[in-house]
Design brief:
Blueprint: H1 21-24, E1 27-33, E2 36-42, H2 60-67, H3 69-75, E3 79-88, E4 97-107, E5 111-119, E6 124-134, H4 172-181, H5 188-193, E7 195-197, E8 207-212, H6 226-243, E9 251-260, E10 270-280, E11 284-292, E12 298-308
Antiparallel strand pairs: 1-2, 2-4, 3-6, 3-9, 4-5, 5-6, 7-8, 8-10, 9-12, 10-11, 11-12
Helix pairs in contact: 2-6, 4-6
Length: 309
């Protein structure tokens, strides 16, 4: 099994057919403990970025998965997230076993706010909120609630080959350009998402990430799961942050906010995320994001802070 220290060992590729976002991201064991919704996530190299690290995007599916359930339990209404807000401190290890908790803070018949915390039992790595909105759509007749409970996968099943180490003398512009040209690995998480950098189509001063959708990315309604949207937007912001980093400089996605407008189909069509810098400082860079469909339909917008170290 790979760990946070890059090595030359050949990892065993991920096996098995990915069937849904929860299974794809090692999430399961959902339960109610004293009124609090709890689920677990087994991390693995599958979720590592182009640096071989776990960062905020890896938590988004767990975060979204449990984010609406407390509101649903309180109102008995199907709901979706209108916005996710995530903040991180520290960094989980490649093979950590995480626990996420979700608790309803306030609500009425139409909207709610849920607090979510993700950590390893000794410290939280990610905390934030989900804005829940009741929807008129009925749960599909063929949806099996047992699917929400998933068993936690074995860590070995989430193994993958990490991207090669990044030399300390390469600046961020060079690193991202190499990934775009295929000269440097994009990392297992980007491979899982079918995510590539589009240099030619990107607007001026923006980084563009494109994703070819697959059926496993869908929710119970057959459109893209909110956690997958959050992961894609977060991954795009991470690459934009890398682009602004100095040679040898470390960074993390410190804060991410995603507002959902429309969920795209997961039929093989493409979604596009454009990330523009708003302010780049020595310690924090702030970016705005737009996710659109192939016809230009606006699907989501977001903002992210990248913390440099």
């Amino acid at each position: 099994m790979n760990d946070n220290k890059h090595d030359d060992a050949v990892a065993v590729p991920t096996t098995g057919v990915v069937r849904d976002p929860v299974a794809a991201f090692g999430v399961g064991a959902m339960r109610i403990d004293d009124g609090v919704v709890v689920a677990e996530q087994q991390l693995g190299p599958r979720f590592a970025d182009h640096r071989g690290l776990i960062d905020l995007p890896a938590y988004a599916v767990l975060f979204d998965h449990i984010g609406g359930i407390p509101y649903h339990r309180a109102t008995d209404s199907p709901c979706m997230q209108a916005r996710l807000v995530l903040s991180t401190v520290g960094r989980a290890g490649l093979t950590d076993h995480l626990t996420g908790t979700a608790q309803l803070l306030m609500h009425d018949a139409k909207v709610g706010v849920t607090e979510i915390r993700v950590g390893d039992g000794t410290e939280d790595f990610c905390v934030g909120t989900a804005r829940n909105v009741a929807v008129g759509r009925a749960v599909p007749d063929d949806f099996d609630n047992a699917e929400l409970a998933h068993d936690i996968p074995d860590a070995a099943s989430l193994d993958a080959v990490l991207a090669q180490p990044i030399p300390d003398d390469l600046d961020g512009e060079t690193i991202v350009a190499q990934i775009a040209r295929g000269e440097r690995d994009r990392g297992p998480l980007a491979e899982l998402l079918n995510a590539t950098i589009d240099v030619d189509g990107a607007p001026s001063n923006a980084l563009r990430l494109v994703v070819d959708t697959e059926a496993w990315m869908g929710n119970m309604f057959g459109t893209m799961h909110g956690g997958v949207i959050g992961t894609i937007v977060g991954a795009a912001c991470s690459l934009a942050g890398q682009q602004k980093a100095r040679a040898g400089q470390e960074y993390r996605v410190g804060d991410l906010s995603v507002a959902y407008f429309r969920s795209p189909p997961v039929d093989g069509s493409r979604v596009i995320v454009d990330v523009e810098p708003l302010k780049v400082g020595r310690r924090i860079a702030t970016f705005s994001t737009r996710m659109t469909g192939p016809d230009g339909t606006l699907l989501a917008v977001g903002a992210a802070d990248i913390h440099f170290r």
